[in-house]
Amino acid sequence: MAVFDDFEAYMEFVKSFNIKCSLKLTPGAFQGRINSLHLREMNIISTVQNQTLYVQGPKFKNCLHFCMVFSPKRSPMLSHGTRLKKWDLFGFDTCRDANLIMGQGTQVISIAINRQFFDTVAETMGYEPFNDEILKPNIARFHPYQIAELRNYYQQINQILLQQQTPLREPQKNLIFENFLPLLIDTFGEIIREGNTKNNHIKSYRRYAIVKKAEDFAYSHLHEPITLQQLCETLGTSSTALSAGFKEVFGVSPMNYLKIQRLHGVHRSLKNTDPSSTTVMSVAHQWGFWSLNHFSRDYQKLFGELPSQTLRN
Question: Which are the contacts of 195, defined by CB distance < 8 A and separation ≥ 6?
Fold first, then answer.
């Protein structure tokens, strides 16, 4: 188990899981926990945090990912702009990177399985290989009775991860592996047989495409002062539509999202700067902040400490 009270340390740690970009979208001190377990051809990762995070990154090569979310009722979880529900299995599209917004208190359990091994076991169970077209929807929405047993097993695995004081012995690992994989294949295979993976009723928020374009544009102009009007003119949309889209997807306005990105840039710079050779304001200026009072207030609100404390520490 890895426990964090520093967001930058958390970000550095998750790089080992291919997460390349992570933003904390809600204000306050950060606390997070990651548990992981390797079982032969399968890796299990469980994450939970007290703040809303936006994480992106490529999936493990030559693996299939099957993720499930456990979260409070009022804490949303989105994947590629689609609101996830309690009975969803998601993340298995091999052609898409991970792209998740995890609400406060949201717990995600991700299982990555060597694809060749998965297909071999599935074939012995009487299933045709799960080709990329079948996996393309990325989300399968089940009726509760279809996935209750698998969901319960995910929770059992998570409890094992939380409670283990010493590394699991090989017989224990083999028992989990041999019980879980056939259950996963049968549960997923059932919805394949019923032809329900397309799930035409599962749709991204209708403004997600324009929000993604705005995000990409902003990311490539992080050090430049961008106005809402400039953003709308560049994308050919209205401020009303763009603001509504950002509120749906990220829970904040477009300009607040841009400010959060730049505050993270300052935070990373201060963490990696020699305090004897720079000042807070020089770093803040590099990221487009010119008012010390407003900048310090926003920074402390987001990270729970003053920028001078970050620089000193």
Answer: none
Query: Helix or strand or coil: residue 292?
Result: helix
The residue segments making up the domain with residue 295 are 208-312
**Nearest Cα to Cα of residue 22 among 11, 33, 31, 35:** 11
Same domain, 99 and 240: no
Residues across the chain: 313
Q: Is the pTM of this model over 0.70?
A: yes
Distance of CA 273 to the CA centre of its chain: 28
Whether 168 and 286 share a structural domain:
no
Of residues 32, 166, 57, the one with CA closest to residue 112: 57
Pure H helices in the chain: 7-14, 115-124, 132-135, 144-163, 170-193, 208-219, 228-235, 239-249, 254-271, 280-286, 292-303, 307-312
DSSP annotation of 17: G
Q: How far apart are the C-alpha atoms of 138 and 246, rounded to whole Å?
A: 22
Last residue of a domain, one of 193, 216, 239: 193
How many whole angstroms separate alpha carbon 280 and alpha carbon 182?
A: 55
pLDDT at res. 193? 65
Q: Kindly state whether residue 199 falls inside one of the protein's structural domains.
A: no
pLDDT single digits (tens) 64-105: 999 999 887 778 899 999 999 889 999 999 999 999 999 999
pLDDT digits (tens, 9 = 90+) for 203-219: 778 889 999 999 888 88
Nearest of 94, 95, 101 to residue 119 by alpha carbon:
94
11 burial (CB, 10 Å; 0-12 / 13-18 / 19+) is buried
